[in-house]
Specification:
The protein has helices at residues 4-7, 12-22, 28-43, 47-52, 77-89, 103-112, 126-134, 145-154, 178-189, 207-221, 234-247, and strands spanning 67-72, 93-98, 116-118, 138-142, 160-164, 168-173, 199-204, 248-252, 257-261, 274-279, 292-298, 310-312. The chain is of the alpha/beta class and 343 residues long. It folds into 2 domains: 4-166, Aldehyde Dehydrogenase, Chain A, domain 1 (3-Layer(aba) Sandwich), CATH 3.40.605; 168-312, Aldehyde Dehydrogenase, Chain A, domain 2 (3-Layer(aba) Sandwich), CATH 3.40.309.10. Strand 6 (168-173), helix 9 (178-189) and strand 7 (199-204) form a beta-alpha-beta unit. Helix 2 (12-22) crosses helix 3 (28-43), helix 2 (12-22) packs antiparallel against helix 6 and helix 9 (178-189) crosses helix 10 (207-221).
């Protein structure tokens, strides 16, 4: 792996990755912060050793994948980067398929490491999909449940398959203070609330007061993390504001909508910095428990959290450590070949 080539966002592959990320619609400031967070996860002291410690001792080399297909369907560049580098950590040659229109991300990673090979194909191009699968010992899919199911069905027996579907994340504030509010604002603005690790709701004892204070922090932060609201986002955004004004109260900043409601039930966010603030009630966790990825919290964790949910401090939601168990699973063992025999 040539990770250090990606750390320098001013030149070479790092600059290309930054440009590819900006072309997806992120501001330069948001893109820089997100990519820096991911490279810092890989270069943190002891991070790589901790990752390799997941592998069983005495693992035969024949269990390591030689070739890996990573399908990063409409996911963040940091997520595609992490999945590809997991394969490279095992010594595999990685074929990387990004979403159509995001091929520049794969090309930038390939410029940093020639063993990462862009493999573009449309999801509707079944022959190209099957040809890519045929080259792989291991297939990794980041995407919707439907995309994962389709790839799993197309993957032959004997080929390792690892699918990571869409999840939701939230904030639970048992204590609301300046540090917590600053952290939640950072979590909301990171990657413009895109991805499974972004908060969709905040549960707090006083939703309206918390929402008002949080909007003030976001208004301060968005000067350093600007975002342009796409025209296509306005219908859902206006509907969310109308609901908040009817059922609670909305607080609007230049880029964000923070909406306080009296109903604690989980409510999906339309994204792009639209955040629901709800009264804390642990019973609201039950319907989404199987889909929970990360909960940022202060104070005691709520009851009913399932095993495998990542808990972190506010401000760390989009900064998972390298050893974070993705969807409750270790990172490297699911990528190993199922048997020592090579197809």
């Amino acid at each position: 792996m040539k990770l250090f080539a990606l750390r320098d966002l001013e030149r070479g592959p790092g600059a290309a990755l930054l440009e590819a990320t900006i072309s997806m619609g992120f501001s330069e400031e948001v893109a820089r912060a997100g990519l820096a967070a991911e490279t810092e996860a890989w270069t943190a002291s002891g991070a790589l050793d901790g990752l390799l410690a997941e592998l069983p001792s005495g693992l035969p080399a024949t269990r390591l994948p030689r070739t890996m297909l990573v399908v990063a369907a409409r996911t963040l560049p940091a997520s595609a980067m992490r999945a590809a580098l997991m394969g490279r950590t095992l010594g595999a040659r990685v074929f990387l398929k990004t979403a159509t229109g995001q091929e520049d991300v794969a090309e930038a990673l390939a410029a940093a490491d020639p063993e990462i090979v862009p493999r573009p194909f449309r999801s509707s191009d079944i022959p190209a999909r099957d040809a890519a699968i045929a080259e792989a010992d291991t297939v990794v899919v980041l995407g919707s449940d439907d995309a994962i199911a389709a790839m799993r069905e197309a993957t032959p027996d004997g080929v390792t398959f690892a699918g990571y579907g869409h999840r939701v994340s939230a904030v639970w504030l048992g204590r609301v203070d300046d540090e917590a509010l600053d952290g939640v604002a950072e979590d909301l603005c990171a990657w413009d609330q895109a991805g499974c690790l972004s908060p969709q709701v905040v549960w707090a004892s006083d939703p309206e007061r918390t929402a008002a204070a949080l909007a003030e922090r976001v208004a301060e932060l968005e000067r350093r993390r600007p975002m342009t609201i796409p025209e296509a986002a306005w219908p859902a955004r206006n509907a969310a504001r109308t609901l908040a004004d009817m059922m609670g109260r909305s607080f609007v900043t230049e880029t964000a909508l923070v909406a306080a409601l009296d109903d604690p039930s989980f409510r999906s966010s339309p994204g792009l910095r639209v955040l629901w603030v709800l009264p804390a009630d642990s019973r609201a966790l039950a319907p989404i428990a199987p889909l929970l990825s990360t909960v940022a919290l202060t104070g005691r964790p709520p009851t009913g959290l399932p095993l495998g949910v990542r808990l972190c401090a506010p401000g760390r939601m989009q900064r998972p450590p390298l050893t974070w168990p993705h969807d409750g699973r270790p990172n490297l063992p699911p990528l190993l070949r199922a048997s020592a025999s090579h197809r």
